[in-house]
Amino acid sequence: MELFKMAKEAMSMRSKLNEMNKRLKSQVIDVEYKGVKIEVNAKNEFLSLNIPEELFKEKKEKIEKVVLAAFEEAREKAQAIMTEESKKVMGNMKFPGLN
């Protein structure tokens, strides 16, 4: 009977994780950093990048720093949303060996 209960809980968790993935994928985050615009979903999949023409007048190193900083900000925001969604799904679950 215990095995059946565990299998049922695993199926329920799988369903919840699939739903969470759908929500994360559909949640779009727009980030603008010093003119660089990035669109990313909460699964941390980058959707678009727009670099303003005037930035191309700068030195290569500055362009790289600005673009990387924009990507980092987008990644951090996506990660924060992903963490919150995971907490909602996982709740107070206890995993053997991790308690």
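[next item in queue]
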Amino acid sequence: MADPMRIRAKAEGNIATVRVLMSHEMESGQRKDSAGKVIPAWHISEVSATHNGKVVMTAEWGPAVSKNPFLQFNVKGAKAGDKVGVTWKDNKGDTRTDEATVS
């Protein structure tokens, strides 16, 4: 299992800015190791975010996203104390879900 995501959510008015730093190696499948063998692709393929349990954002990613990707998005109608959750799934079937409270 991957390390926890670092999620920060800050509300200004009725909009919260959510910043997420994900821990994932994100191999493209095009690099080679020291023996010359191709390193298999291993990358986040799906990302979704929830606000108090309701899905507010989904994304499909591919192998071109960098290692330990950063994601930022806004959530309308969010206020301090609300919960924001982020889930990712990679091409090997591993998943990670973490949650933060809007400040």
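[queue empty]
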